[in-house]
Write a structure and sequence with these properties.
This protein is an alpha+beta fold. The chain has two domains: 52 residues, no CATH class; 156 residues, no CATH class. The protein has three helices and nine strands, in the order H-H-E-H-E-E-E-E-E-E-E-E. Strand 4 and strand 5 form a beta hairpin. The longest helix is centred in the first third of the chain and has 19 residues. 23% of the residues are buried.
């Protein structure tokens, strides 16, 4: 990269110095030096954050979805169709979570993001604890879009085959990130007007941590 800058600076001078039939005034030697001083900070900035030589592409994907953590039924408490309950699997009891600096005990009235950053791999692992979905979602997916320092995560379900909702844990991995602040924004199908999961993390200052919000609307807060 530096060699390209030097070539550009001095080639600029050589191409600009052309004799004229009537007058000739060479460009001062300080001109390419000034160009070089202007371009060097850009080079170092690109090198610090990977630039074109970043070996890890920026991408994100959903890597794991837990089973339904609690059998939280609606007022009718009926499932439809009957075969849909089999697709959802057997609901498991609500369980506590402890990892990566996250809360040691988590009730169903909380929704949290635990995160861990590996600077050597440029990899951020996010775990969404108590994500709300239908009891029979068919499949759960996440659209993860990274634009500059903004990470937008949209959680989705393919179907809502049962007349109940419950809580799940989702794990996501995002690669190609650097030790800098990022703003994380989650869009959830059942959060409605409840407290959103929108927050900023600084991967250099705090590579591991968690962010939680309190929720009381169904399917949260059913303890």
């Amino acid at each position: 990269m530096l060699s390209e800058i030097f070539d550009f600076a001095f080639n600029t001078q050589r191409s600009a110095i052309k004799p004229h039939p009537t007058c000739y005034k060479p460009i001062p030697m300080k001109t390419p030096v000034l160009i070089l001083l202007f371009l060097l900070p850009l080079c170092f900035s690109r090198c610090e954050h990977g630039g074109e030589n970043n070996p890890v592409p920026v991408s994100g994907k959903l890597t794991h979805v837990s089973d339904c953590k609690s059998n939280v039924s609606s007022s009718s408490s009926s499932l439809f169709p009957a075969e849909a309950s089999a697709q959802a699997g057997v609901p498991v009891p609500h369980r506590s979570f402890s990892a990566g600096g996250g809360p040691s005990s988590l009730s169903s009235s909380q929704s949290c993001i635990n995160y861990t950053y590996d600077k050597n791999l440029h990899r951020l692992t996010l775990t969404h604890i108590n994500a709300g979905f239908n009891c029979c979602p068919d499949s759960i997916t996440c659209d993860i879009n990274i634009t500059g320092s903004i990470i937008q995560i949209t959680e989705k379900e393919a179907s809502a085959l049962c007349n109940c909702n419950c809580l799940y844990d989702l794990e996501m991995v995002i690669t190609g990130l650097f030790e800098m602040p990022y703003n994380i924004r989650l869009s959830e199908p059942y959060a409605g007007e409840q407290a959103p999961l929108i927050f900023t993390i600084d991967l250099k200052q705090n590579p591991t941590g968690s962010y939680c919000v309190e929720r009381g609307g169904y399917p949260w807060g059913m303890d």
